[in-house]
């Protein structure tokens, strides 16, 4: 073999095209980052709006993600949402609900009333009852990504910010459990054995709880020996949470419920707060960026046309129900009506949590979930874009933005 032939072989090996999934990840990261910085430089809107716009442009040109999620999109959504829900769980002190029963009542009321309102409105539009119930459950949770990212970027602090975190954790918990129960009900209704379905449900929940407990114990042990504010310790923590999420996906349990329960167990088994960089620093921030781009791209013009009026009715019913419940119970929950109104607006977005739940429903019950897809994806497409702006306005209404953010919020994150 000549030297020339050897050189040709080397160059050929170096010129091997990267995998499609790697190209997808790089493209999503670059597009989201560029769009986010453009929005930050030219407007006073949060960077999340730019991330979502990048996804919307990709979808408009036919390059959005397909449902159910798979490949790199599935991995990014699992990891990003899992990290966010674990962090949210670690910030929720359940003792707060015992001291403030009005807040517990608010959580139950806003989740239940919004689900009932959505189901009834869709039934009035002649949507099938199974589709209406599924849409009602998927519309129940507020997004972990949007409200948390906007609050972080703008430096928001206060009662509304804290209560939004609590309500997001709880209504996500309600929605995932309700979706699991609905799938069990459908399995029995299709001729399956109810006892077998319930046994499978019990086994799934116990496995989820066991994985959550193992993750909580592992993080607790790491936290006793390392300073979680240190970059190296944060990377170890990131790895533990990511490994648990991969394990949850491998054994077939909820990648939403497991990290949320782990965070709740960790926070409420110890008196001290758990402190580390928000969203696990740069790594978690990159995942959240990609998550927002992916969610923003999860539609097509055909889906928007099919979802149409039913999606608009869902969004209106959901917002009115959540607002009525939260504002009506504001005084009992030891909040002013202004804080109640601001809190209800922070619950407006519908985002990645609903998208992942829809993906799981499509994978498990494709025929029954087919009617849900256009309604939920249209709602996500609208509220994923309008949601960050609504959250920003709500935090400003509540007076929880620092003076610098009131004047120029898009520069806040750069100074952190």
TrEMBL record:
Protein name: Sodium:proton exchanger
Membrane topology per record: Multi-pass membrane protein
Species of origin: Pelomonas aquatica
Keyword Repeat: no
Keywords: Membrane, Transmembrane, Transmembrane helix
Gene3D superfamilies for the chain: 1.20.1530.20
Molecular-function annotations in GO: antiporter activity
Gene Ontology terms: biological process: proton transmembrane transport
PANTHER family in alphabetical order: CATION_H+ EXCHANGER DOMAIN-CONTAINING PROTEIN, NA(+)/H(+) ANTIPORTER-RELATED
Keyword Transmembrane part of the UniProt annotation: yes
């Amino acid at each position: 073999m000549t030297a020339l032939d050897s050189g040709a072989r080397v160059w050929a090996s170096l010129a091997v095209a990267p995998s499609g999934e790697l190209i997808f990840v790089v493209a999503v990261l670059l597009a989201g980052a560029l769009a986010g910085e453009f929005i930050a430089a030219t407007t006073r809107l949060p960077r999340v709006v730019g991330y979502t716009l990048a996804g919307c442009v990709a979808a408009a040109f036919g390059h959005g993600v397909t449902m159910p999620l798979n490949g790199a999109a599935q991995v990014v959504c699992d990891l990003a949402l899992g990290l966010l829900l674990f962090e949210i769980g670690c910030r929720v002190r359940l003792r707060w609900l015992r001291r403030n029963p009005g807040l517990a009542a608010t959580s139950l009321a806003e989740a239940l009333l919004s689900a009932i309102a959505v189901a009834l409105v869709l039934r009035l539009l002649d949507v099938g009852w199974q589709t209406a119930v599924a849409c009602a459950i998927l519309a129940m949770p507020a997004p972990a990504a949007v409200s948390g990212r906007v609050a972080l970027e703008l430096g928001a602090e206060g009662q509304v910010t804290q209560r939004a975190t609590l309500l997001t954790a709880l209504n996500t918990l309600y929605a995932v459990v309700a979706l699991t129960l609905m799938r069990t009900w459908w399995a029995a209704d299709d001729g399956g054995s109810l006892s077998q379905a319930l046994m499978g449900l019990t086994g799934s929940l116990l496995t989820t709880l066991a994985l959550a407990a193992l993750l909580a114990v592992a993080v607790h042990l790491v936290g006793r020996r390392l300073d979680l504010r240190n970059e190296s310790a944060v990377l170890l923590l990131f790895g533990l949470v990511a490994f648990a999420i991969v394990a949850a996906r491998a054994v077939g349990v909820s990648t939403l419920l497991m990290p949320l329960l782990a965070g709740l167990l960790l926070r409420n088994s110890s008196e001290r707060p758990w402190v580390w960089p928000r969203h696990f620093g740069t790594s978690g921030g990159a995942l959240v960026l990609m998550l927002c781009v992916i969610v923003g791209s999860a539609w097509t013009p055909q889906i928007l046309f099919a979802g149409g009026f039913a999606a608009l009715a869902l969004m209106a019913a959901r917002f009115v129900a959540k607002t009525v419940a939260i504002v009506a119970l504001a005084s009992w929950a030891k909040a002013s009506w202004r804080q109640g109104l601001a809190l209800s607006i922070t619950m407006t977005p519908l985002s990645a949590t609903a998208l992942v739940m829809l993906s799981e429903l499509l994978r498990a019950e494709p025929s029954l979930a087919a009617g849900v897809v256009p309604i939920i994806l249209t709602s996500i497409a609208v509220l994923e874009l309008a949601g960050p702006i609504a959250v920003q306005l709500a935090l400003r209404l509540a007076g929880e933005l620092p003076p610098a953010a009131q004047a120029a919020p898009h520069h806040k994150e750069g100074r952190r």
